[in-house]
Design goal:
- The protein is built from ten helices and no strands.
- It is an all-alpha fold.
- It has two domains: 94 residues, Alpha Horseshoe (Serine Threonine Protein Phosphatase 5, Tetratricopeptide repeat); 55 residues, Serine Threonine Protein Phosphatase 5, Tetratricopeptide repeat, CATH 1.25.40.
- It is elongated and about 55 Å long.
């Protein structure tokens, strides 16, 4: 905090303060700090990604998606940002766009696995199972990971009956 007081142009100080506030679940304060950092360094994909994650944890998925989109405009090669973007889009119910974001962050099999996992966490077991099957079909070497997730989804489906 002292660094930001001494030199208000140190965007990194605001970013670190934002990280600290985010970890303390003081999301509004973190968001304020990220906006200060972005005002100084508006082309940083990392700042927009961190802002997006803060909005995501605050359950403001529309703002999170917008932040991730802006991060990708500055650095479209960051696989992590695509995955974060996919998370936000999924929470917004924009499943096909979430799939595309996950695919851009990895490959088709990992995208189906990610979608399946998110369906499973939402207790949408039939959709999860279908996605895991598609992950295995898309990349048989993905079998172990997707198969383990599919077993969990089937257990959840059976527990609902």
């Amino acid at each position: 905090m002292k660094a930001a007081e001494i030199n208000p142009k140190l965007w990194q100080a605001y970013a670190f303060i934002g990280i600290i506030y985010g970890r303390e679940k003081r999301y509004d304060e973190a968001i304020t700090q990220y906006h200060k950092a972005i005002a100084i360094n508006p082309k940083s994909s990392a700042l927009f990604n961190n802002l997006g994650m803060t909005y995501y944890f605050k359950e403001e998925y529309g703002k999170a998606a917008e932040s991730f989109s802006r991060a990708l405009k500055h650095d479209p090669s960051k696989h992590r940002i695509y995955n974060n973007y996919g998370l936000a889009l999924f929470k917004l119910g924009r499943y096909s766009q979430a799939f595309d974001a996950f695919k851009n962050g990895g490959d088709e099999a990992s995208a189906y696995n990610n979608i399946g996992y998110l369906y499973m966490t939402d207790n949408k077991y039939p959709e999860a199972i279908e996605a895991f099957e598609k992950a295995i079909e898309a990349k048989p070497s993905y079998y172990v990971k997707a198969s383990d997730n599919m077993k969990s989804a089937k257990s959840g489906l059976n527990a609902e009956k």
